Amino acid sequence: VEHGQAASRRLTPESGTLAQVVWFDAGPDRPGLLLFAVHHLVVDGVSWRILLPDLASAWSRVAAGDEPELEPVGTSLRTWATRLVEEASDARRLEELPLWRAALTGPDPQLGARPLDKGRDVFGTARTLTLTLPPEVTGPLLTDVPAALHAQIKDVLLAAYTVAVASWRARRQPTQGNAVLVEMEGHGREPVVEGADLGRTVGWFTSSYPVRLNPGQLDWNDFWGGGRTVESALDAVRAQLAELPDGGIGYGMLRYLNERTRSELAALRTPQLGFNYLGRFAAGGTDAKAQDWSPPPGMAG
Questions:
Q1: Residues 6+ apart with CB under 8 A from 7
Q2: Exposed, middle or buried, 279 (CB in 10 Å: 0-12/13-18/19+)?
Q3: Of 148, 162, 213, 259, whose Cβ has the fewest other Cβ atoms within 10 Å?
Q4: Domain 2-73 carries which CATH code?
Q5: What is the pTM of this model?
Q6: Does the domain formed by 77-275 have CATH 1.10.10.60?
Q7: Beta strand pairing status for 180-186 and 273-275?
Q8: What positions does the domain Condensation occupy (predicted)?
Q9: Per-domain residue ranges for the chain?
Q10: pLDDT of the residue at 92
């Protein structure tokens, strides 16, 4: 772990060092470990799903005495970024402005004892709480619950998150209502540029956008008892998410890439809460080659 942290500290984007590779030799009788430390500036969660199979494929060919041969990349990150700037000024994109304005101008009751202070609340003072659920909880959550509710797991998790915040606030500020302002993160590879193919493009495409989610009136006794309120809250959140155009990617275009709208959106509030679901990552296949390129326990991230 300490070698991994040291490799991460050696990443210096300002001088062009964006990746470090470290080989841990465990001797002749045990498999070694290959550590990749790559700055988030050049990879995202989706990128690893491209890189790891490519590494496995390339090494397989090298081990067989052949030259690595990978599938071609469709649209480059540079081309995508250029096209997004053009898309940000499109009249259809400007029609989204009232949506984002409304999301950020409604009430957002303060969560802590005081508002966030940009001078005090910085990266160095941040703290992290990590909770890990056991398989007997995550198994049914990822399979049985979505099947029973006819929903995607992301909708289930986000509805639960929204209701949890609404419940917490109801015990402290019962007159504030149940709407929750959340900053969402998405993969950012939405099909908004005609002809673009990002299926094999590595880079940081992540998009963020605000959404105001309201699970509706909540009968707490019925909800905690697993009654109809559970489904109605999920249906409400799911419907509100479905109304977002193009997975929310338009917000970032108007906030950062459109000269006419960036200042207005920059002046609005910043959500206090965030939500990001990366999806399910396979732990590796059953064949030896797949296992060789599987992230070892405790080393991924």
A1: 20, 22, 35, 37
A2: exposed
A3: 259
A4: 3.30.559.10
A5: 0.86
A6: no
A7: parallel
A8: 15-287
A9: 2-73, 77-275
A10: 94
